[in-house]
Amino acid sequence: MTGHEPLARNSASMLQSLDKDRFQEQSVGGEIGYFDIVEKLFISKRSMRLLIEELLPTTSGGTAPDRELDVGSLLEKSKARISRNLKQADSLGKDSYSQVFLSYMSRSFLLKNRNKREMMAILYVDLVGSTAMTAVLSPDQFSHLVRIFCQEMSIMISKSGGYVLKYAGDAVIGYFPKDPDIRTACENAIRCAFHLKRVVEGSLNVILADNNYPKLRTRIAADVGENQILVLGSDPDLLGQVISRAAKIMSKAKPNQVVIGDNLFKKIRSDLKSLFLEIEKYGLAETGEIYPIYRSAE
Question: What are the tens digits of pLDDT across the range 139-158?
């Protein structure tokens, strides 16, 4: 393998690298911007720059889950976004444009690296107790809630240096390429997992409680392994055992817990390892391997 080809990860470079076939420069009412021909939507250049700055990572490094990002600022922005979205009843059935653009970023990355085999950290986050929520919420309310949850999880995955692969019901699947190396990818995934918990506890549940919605609980799982980037028709995807393995070990997480596999645990620094306890050795059906898994120690 010759190494992957990263996407631009700052607002100026991202604006310059937008797909010209999809984002056509236009002027509407004297304001210069881009017409997204897929979404049939005009976005001013200023709005596009603010959107990109909202989604892209801002810093790197740190030795604990709350040091890499200004989590306090992100939580305040998240609360404002959730409050605004809860009031937008006309958005039912539609993804936010943040989610649309994150899907575009992921698709662009995978297409640039098609047919490559890539070591990546994979992260799953899903809702616990969805069935119980459908008993107290209308179908429209529940659908709207899941979309808001997926938006907030997706934004934090991107802010942590990852991409959103897909949505599977009320779960979000993210991936972290080895940029600049696989240890960084693994540590970004770990920090992201704890940031996701902070968003649920310190943002989503705060605003939901104020609006008489039930509190959300999550399970989060992460592991690392090799993936094949393939394109089926025009849709890129990842194929590899690590994706199914992360989904399986997630079943071992209790509500509001993070679980990780041994392959990922071995690649992170000792200060991050100290946040986890080994819970069991899990039998992998595909290989027969006895595989240690770890849970968050909090």
Answer: 889 999 999 999 999 999 99
Give yes or no for a contact between 229 and 115, defined as CB atoms under 8 angstroms apart: yes
Residue 286's φ and ψ, nearest 5 degrees, are -75, -25
Under a CB-based contact definition with an 8 Å cutoff, are residues 200 and 216 in contact?
yes
SS3 167: strand
Which of the pair, 222 or 68, is modelled with greater confidence? 222
**Two tokens, residue 207:** 């605003």
Cα distance between residue 20 and residue 72, in whole Å = 36
**Is 180 exposed, middle or buried, given 0-12, 13-18 or 19+ CB atoms closer than 10 A?**
exposed
Q: How confident is the model at residue 13 (pLDDT cuts 50, 70, 90)?
A: confident
Give the pLDDT confidence of 239-253 residue by residue, as tens digits.
Answer: 999 999 999 899 889
Q: How many CA atoms lie within 13 A of 267 on its CB side?
A: 23
* Cβ atoms within 10 Å, residue 83: 14
pLDDT band at 182, cuts 50/70/90?
very high
> CA 153 to CA 200: how far, in whole Å?
9
Rounded alpha-carbon distances, angstroms, from residue 85 to 24, 117, 126: 27, 38, 20
Sign of the CA dihedral with 145 first, then 37, 231, and 177 last: negative
List the domains of the chain with CATH numbers: 57-296 (3.30.70.1230)
